[in-house]
Amino acid sequence: MVTDADGIILQVNSAFMEMSGYTTDEIIGNTPKMFQSGRHGPAFYEEMWQTINSDGFWQGEIWERRKNGEVYPKLLSISAVTDTDGKISHYVGSHADITEKKSAEKKIDKLAYYDQLTGLPNKVQFMNRLEQTLEACVRDNQYSAILMIDLDHFQKLNDTLGHVIGDQLLVQVASLLEESTSSVDTVARFGGDKFVVILPELASDKIKAARTAEKVTRNILHTLNKEYQLGRSSHHSTVSIGVNLFGSETLTIDVLLKQAELAMYESKSAGRNTMTCYDPKMQSSVSKLVTMEKELRSALENEEFFLDYQPQASLQNGRIISVEALIRWNSPKLGLVSPDEFIPVLEEMELIVDVGNWVLGESCECLKRWHQSGFDYIRIGINVSPAQFKNKNFLDTVRDILKKTKVPPGYVELEIT
Predict the structure, then answer these.
(1) How many Å from the N-terminal Cα to the C-terminal Cα in the chain?
(2) Residue 41 CB: number of other CB atoms within 10 A?
(3) Percentage above 90 pLDDT, the chain
(4) pTM (predicted TM-score)
(5) CA pair distance 213, 201, nearest whole angstrom
(6) For the packed helices 123-140 and 253-269, what is the interaxial angle rounded to 10 degrees?
(7) DSSP structure class, residue 23
(8) pLDDT over 70, % of the chain
(9) Helix (H), strand (E) at residue 9
(10) Buried (b) or exposed (e) across 283-306, using 16+ Cβ within 10 A?
(11) What is the DSSP string of 248-274?
(12) Where are the beta strands (DSSP E) in 83-193?
């Protein structure tokens, strides 16, 4: 496009006419304002012309309108042409339709920053927005919150009905999460069946911000606690949520997420379908748990476990007729640890089978010694974990122990916990 010094269009080529949809007669004599899309304000054009008049050239992306009303992006280059006296006599504009380029960029952006299954922002996009929220909290002295949301018993659904059905549930949950939050909130899929929500700049008062976060969280709990139609099957699902309120204090993103995750696992431990707000006491509890896991890995090898025997006496003569074998752990670092604390950890670490087999063997050895000492009427009860009972080698293990210790099977009672 060529214009005079006043911006009156003097000439366009066929490529421009094809791009804009106008004929030569409709364009010549007008100004480029006829193509404006309305997406750029006066300040944009003022800055553009200031650059052209001072530097003699401007290039940038601009949105314009075709004759049929379609708004499209183009790369525009404008050069000022001067006469022999150095005065601007013409402007020459080169226009390139970049619709396909923009479309490709949008697709690349979606692949990089959005979850392909649910359409929600992915972990990368979420981390960017969380960093911005954290900076805003520090700048504006505001409180915000992170919600870590995990579907309850999702693995069971995948195992029984398959991943296709599981994906259907994830899509429906994602949609409901967006409906349960406002347009300024960020809902993202963090991976697997885990979702995260940012509630930005709730209030400058901590109590008020906490109440707002709690209200939103309880609404999410209520909304997601429902019967979902998944193909031909219906499935009732709930979620566990961890809430972490944060303000202008200096915390890293990793710490904020870890705290929210700790609170979420606390909700799981509390029975699921509930919310838990992060408490610093959780951190010390988790630190102890990490130490416990580390120590438990070597406890069996280092012979730190021992058995107590709880007796059962006859009402007739007070004689002990049976005992129950109870495992105890005396850790060099943690001291005497309650079975209520370390047995669930053994189960999580999948060490319960090895430890349970040790209890079986040790109990039968002890019973053998008692029988040899004349107490051959005593029976023994031994606890067996479900994981141990379901192990394919369980029956062979019991047979081998009984054979090795020569304990009569009728004197051994196995109790599945």
Answers:
(1) 84
(2) 8
(3) 76
(4) 0.52
(5) 11
(6) 110
(7) -
(8) 98
(9) strand 9-11
(10) eeebeebeebeebbeebbeeebbe
(11) SS---HHHHHHHHHHHHHHHHHTTSS-
(12) 88-97, 143-151, 186-191
From CA 207, how far away is CA 143, in angstroms rounded? 10
320: its two tokens: 């002990």
Q: Which residue blocks in 154-224 are alpha helix, DSSP H?
A: 154-161, 163-179, 206-224
Write the DSSP symbol of residue 309: E
Residue of 72, 44, 41 whose CA lies nearest to 60: 44
Q: Which helix (H) or strand (E) holds 226?
A: strand 226-230
The pLDDT of residue 108 is: 77
What is the Cα–Cα distance from 293 to 38, expressed in whole angstroms?
Answer: 63
Contact 347, 385 (CB under 8 A): yes
Residue given tokens 């129950």 in the structure block: 324
As a whole number of angstroms, the distance between CA 196 and CA 180 comes to: 13
- For the record, the structure tokens of 267 come out as 């909700």
Q: Which residues contact 397 (CB under 8 A, 6 or more apart)?
A: 357, 360, 391
